[in-house]
Structures are given as C-alpha cells and as structure tokens.
TrEMBL record:
GO molecular function: cytidine deaminase activity; zinc ion binding
Family affiliation: Belongs to the cytidine and deoxycytidylate deaminase family.
Gene Ontology CC: one annotated term: cytosol
Biological processes per GO annotation: nucleobase-containing small molecule metabolic process; pyrimidine-containing compound metabolic process
Pfam families per UniProt: dCMP_cyt_deam_2 (PF08211)
Boundaries of every CMP/dCMP-type deaminase domain copy: 8-100
Assembly behavior: Homodimer.
UniProt xrefs under InterPro entries: CMP_dCMP_dom, Cyd/dCyd_deaminase_Zn-bd, Cyt/Deoxycyt_deaminase, Cytidine_deaminase-like
Organism field: Actinomortierella ambigua
Protein name per UniProt: CMP/dCMP-type deaminase domain-containing protein
C-alpha cells in the first residue's frame, strides 16, 4: 500500500514535530514532546508538551479542517477524518433544530 503522503510531506511533518518540542513546557520530566499534523488543505498544525497530539488536533479542528494526517518520527502515520472520530458531533446544521 502506498502512502497518501509524499516523501517531502513526511519529511516536513517530522521536522515540524521535532521543532514543536521547543514549545514543550516540561520542568519536571524534562521530556519534551512535539507533534505535527497535516490537514487536507496542506496546513500544518503543531503542538508541544505532554498533550502535543491533542493540542495540534484541537488547533486543526477549530480551523475547520476535517481530514488530518498524523505522523510519528518513525514515519508511521494515521489518517483521521473528523466525522469518523465524532460521528454524532453537534454542528451548525443542528442550530435550526433547537427550539427558540
């Protein structure tokens, strides 16, 4: 199975994830964690600290990015589609259904 990501995209995500470690506040563990994810429209979101992946994911979701690729430094990646992760999410189309 071939990757939906190009070699350049993989390299950029690894670099961005490693760079995101500089934002990690880890005064006790001294274990700096960084994460980067790529959205369907080519944007890269970064997160640092213990919740690095969650931080990057939340940034992407608030930016209305619905298809995301996560990658680890070992080049393992995961494709996540928001509708699969949150199948019963509340959205703008639900506002009209609320009684006033």
């Amino acid at each position: 199975m071939s990757s939906p990501l190009t070699e350049d995209q993989i390299e950029e995500l690894i670099t961005k994830a490693l760079d995101a470690r500089t934002y990690s506040y880890s005064p006790y563990s001294k274990f700096r964690v960084g994460a980067a994810l790529l959205t369907q429209d080519g944007k890269i979101f970064q997160g640092g600290a213990i919740c690095a992946e969650r931080t990057a994911f939340v940034k992407a979701v608030f930016g209305k990015n619905l298809e995301i690729f996560f990658i680890n430094p070992d080049r393992a990646y995961k494709r996540a589609i928001l509708a699969d992760l949150l199948p019963h999410a509340f959205g703008p189309e639900d506002v009209d259904q609320v009684e006033k």
